[in-house]
């Protein structure tokens, strides 16, 4: 991985962890663990896979920033985070990724959460 990629990865990693600070505590903890695991898991990725990995996480960071901004403006409503995944993206996932996604969904949708995960909100770019 080039020095430019390493610098980009570190900056993105820090940005995501900073963005997670706006999340409710239990969602922040879940998100931080997942991000740390995923970035660790992709340390040795090839350049093509690394580029796609970075693009997906940059899109995640942009969506999270947008939703955090919207939630601050609508402070009287319960905070909402998340987007639905299009079927074509799910079709690109490996079995291992589908399993991780199911675990993440199970963990994020446990009763008595301090947040809502919605399927209808689309990011505004």
TrEMBL record:
<protein>
    <recommendedName>
        <fullName>Succinate dehydrogenase assembly factor 3</fullName>
    </recommendedName>
</protein>
<dbReference type="GO" id="GO:0005759">
    <property type="term" value="C:mitochondrial matrix"/>
</dbReference>
<keyword id="KW-0496">Mitochondrion</keyword>
<comment type="function">
    <text>Plays an essential role in the assembly of succinate dehydrogenase (SDH), an enzyme complex (also referred to as respiratory complex II) that is a component of both the tricarboxylic acid (TCA) cycle and the mitochondrial electron transport chain, and which couples the oxidation of succinate to fumarate with the reduction of ubiquinone (coenzyme Q) to ubiquinol. Promotes maturation of the iron-sulfur protein subunit of the SDH catalytic dimer, protecting it from the deleterious effects of oxidants. May act together with SDHAF1.</text>
</comment>
<keyword id="KW-0143">Chaperone</keyword>
<dbReference type="GO" id="GO:0005758">
    <property type="term" value="C:mitochondrial intermembrane space"/>
</dbReference>
<dbReference type="GO" id="GO:0006105">
    <property type="term" value="P:succinate metabolic process"/>
</dbReference>
<dbReference type="Pfam" id="PF13233">
    <property type="entry name" value="Complex1_LYR_2"/>
</dbReference>
<dbReference type="InterPro" id="IPR008381">
    <property type="entry name" value="SDHAF3/Sdh7"/>
</dbReference>
<dbReference type="GO" id="GO:0034553">
    <property type="term" value="P:mitochondrial respiratory chain complex II assembly"/>
</dbReference>
<comment type="similarity">
    <text>Belongs to the complex I LYR family. SDHAF3 subfamily.</text>
</comment>
<keyword id="KW-0809">Transit peptide</keyword>
<comment type="subunit">
    <text>Interacts with the iron-sulfur protein subunit within the SDH catalytic dimer.</text>
</comment>
């Amino acid at each position: 991985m080039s020095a430019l990629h390493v610098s980009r990865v570190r900056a993105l990693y820090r940005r995501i962890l900073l963005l997670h600070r706006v999340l409710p505590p239990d969602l922040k903890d879940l998100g931080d663990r997942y991000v740390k695991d995923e970035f660790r898991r992709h340390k040795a990725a090839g350049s093509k896979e690394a580029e796609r990995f970075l693009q997906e996480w940059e899109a995640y960071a942009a969506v999270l920033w947008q939703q955090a901004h919207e939630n601050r403006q609508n402070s009287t409503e319960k905070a909402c985070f998340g987007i639905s995944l299009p079927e074509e993206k799910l079709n690109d996932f490996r079995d291992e990724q589908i399993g991780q996604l199911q675990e993440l969904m199970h963990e994020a949708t446990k009763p008595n959460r301090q947040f809502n995960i919605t399927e209808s909100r689309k990011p505004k770019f």
